[in-house]
Amino acid sequence: MAAADQEPHASAVRPRSYQDESYLHGFLGTVGDLQNAGVLQDVFLEVEGRRFPCHRLVLSTASPYFRAMFTSDMAESRQKTVVLQGVDAGMFGEILSYIYSGTLHVSLDKVKPLYQAADLLQLDYVRNTCSSYMAMNVERSTCVDMYKFADVYSVEIVKKSCLQWIARHLLTEVASSEGFCSLSVNQLTEIISRDDLDVKEETTVWESVVRWVQHSREDRLHHLPSILPHIRLNLLTSDDTAAILDHPLVREDPVSYEVIRKQEQKGKSKLKPRLGMTTEMVLLSHAISRELLFMNPREGKYVSCKYGEEDLPFATGVTVTNDNNIYILNRDRERNDQLSVFKYNHAENVWKYDGMSSVSKWLKLNDGCRYYNEHLVEVDGILYCLGGSESVWMRKYNRKTDQWQECSQLELGNTVFECRVALSCSSYLYFLTSRKVHRYDPSQDRWCNRTPSSAINLDINTAVAIGTQIFCTDVRFIRTFVYNTVSDSWQKLQGWSNPGNLDINGSPSLFVLENQLHIYLTCYNDEEDKVEQLVYVYDRSADVWRDLKATVPDKPYNWYGCQCPVARIYLPYFKGA
Q: Counting C-beta atoms within 10 Å of the first and last residue's C-beta, which end of the chain has fewer, N or C?
């Protein structure tokens, strides 16, 4: 027999696995039909006097709780009727319906007992679904009760959502409610210890504590000394502190009185201002005079601060983190081989070396190189430093080891003359040039290419992220686009309608203030022969840029990087500035 006619050797035929999708999808339906027909049921579960006929095999497959019950030497494994304790009969009916159908019905009135039943029976899907449902339905009527429930059962996703809602609405919604007065002392202190309370004055926090104590004065007054340290005396005026000392609750409790007095004697601590006491401010720089301008043009607030030559580091990159820390990336002008990070001290209005190890001591800036862009970006609480020319190096900072760790390098090719921007958006880091969009995934330490900016022919000069979108424009503010990071698509927006006789003098800078897109422009007015600083806000619904008519100080301010940084500032810290 010729070789070509020979049967193939058995070992050359590879085995395959086949999956019957119709069987997989139909199996649960068949099990449900058996349950509805009352066929082959071999155990009764008794809950609050109600008997539920079931199949041991189905229950054991769905729940580790039942698997342990029916496959061990427990007495229940041999009993025809098993009594379940600690479960609501109505909720067990819902659980049983889910086990036999795969469908779960959740509503606000039964989500908590449903979670309790799922927690006992170790049904992860039901438990997780209930958690997500509660977290998405936090409001005035539910926040306190859900918070107390989440605290008892350690449901962190719900607890976090409730605390965020309470922090935003402590004064207007929560503190006056009956639910607030039912909090435990530990729950109360957890709330009033938060930095993100949206209160204008610290006296509001004190008033909420008074309301809580007086709700059950005899039982709660002895807790006041442990609560008082969470009142931020450094945010109170001397008159406010005196009023607290003169309050009946404090005067009648010598221990509470002494707690406040001791805090005063130690000097006022530097506890952070509450979120509601701060104002969103844009940071602009005037390099010649070594001056920073903190401004909120929407509220007409402007604070100018001058620094000595040694007080304000030369910045090559800047970022404002989610926890409102402002970091500057500094390249030593005399030793250009060293990159360091400085942090802004809000309380003292000074820039200080943060104590981080130097980013690098070997990445020298080549003589005459003007396009060696360096950026500082935060992604999910981690700082990333990146820069380079034809290839982009990147390092992330590890606080535990105080070391900058190398990340994947990005190869750009011959693009040294292109503008480059780096920013974070939705847990990713984006690096944009005039031709390409690169996305870095921190979880994979990997770069990938997205729909390129060359598709819209835009020389990106400034960019900023809002939600899952990145807005960018060119150096003349003529063409503006938005990039949707989810759909990986570009959309053109209306450009600036130059009112006439204005010529942009210097690069425009986008920024986000009060969750709205703005742009800062320095323009030359031909008619009046003067330089003007303008601020426009983008009206998304009308697709138009509107002049804020802001009275910006008459200096050519700018900032290093692709956008103007915005931070929340406690204005009393500027007293005397």
A: N
**Three-state secondary structure of 447-467:** EEEECCHHHCCCCCCEEEEEC
pTM: 0.80
Q: Which two tokens stand for residue 336?
A: 């250009």
Q: 445 falls in which pLDDT band (50, 70, 90)? A: very high
Strand, helix or coil at 270?
coil
CA atoms of 420 and 331, how far apart (whole Å): 19
pLDDT of residue 367: 43
Nearest to 232 by CA among 347, 348, 111, 63: 347
What gap in Å lies between CA 434 and CA 479, rounded to an integer?
13
Considering 324-333, 341-350, 410-419, the range whose residues carry the highest mean pLDDT is 341-350
Buried residues in 238-271 as b, exposed as e (16+ CB within 10 A): eeebeebeeeebbeebeebbebbeebeeeeeeeb
Of 345, 383, 347, 387, the residue nearest 369 (C-alpha):
387
> Is residue 488 predicted with pLDDT exceeding 90?
yes
Over residues 44-68, the pLDDT tens digits come to: 889 998 999 888 888 888 889 888 8
Tell me the one-letter amino acid at 116. Answer: Q
Helix (H) or strand (E) segment spanning residue 143: helix 143-153
Domains of the chain: 22-137 (3.30.710.10), 149-266 (1.25.40.420)
Distance CA 228, CA 209 (A): 9
Contact 196, 165 (CB under 8 A): no
> At 502, is the secondary structure helix, strand, or coil?
strand
Instruction: Please return the burial class of 77, using the count of CB atoms within 10 Å of its CB with bins 0-12, 13-18 and 19+.
Output: middle
For residues 38 and 420, give the distance between their C-alpha atoms in angstroms, rounded to a whole number: 68
- Residue 492: per-residue pLDDT: 94
Structure tokens at 481: 């686009």
Q: Which residues pair with 285 in a beta bridge?
A: 292, 558
At residue 28, what are phi and psi to the nearest 5 degrees? -65, -35
Residue 464 CA: distances (Å) to CA of 316, 422, 430, 566? 18, 9, 11, 11
- Do residues 393 and 416 lie in contact, with contact meaning Cβ atoms separated by under 8 Å? no
Closest residue by Cα to residue 431 from 414, 411, 406: 411
> Nearest CA to 458 among 444, 470, 441, 475?
475
In order of 25, 66, 130, the CA distances from 98 in angstroms are 15, 15, 13
Residues in the chain: 577
520-542 pLDDT, tens digit each: 998 888 777 888 889 999 999 99
E strand or H helix that includes residue 160: helix 156-169
The phi, psi pair for 207, rounded to 5°, reads -65, -35
Sequence-separated (6 or more) residues with CB below 8 Å from residue 27? none
Q: Could you tell me the CA-to-CA distances from 455 to 281, 414, 436, 449, 487 in Å, in that order?
A: 35, 19, 9, 13, 15
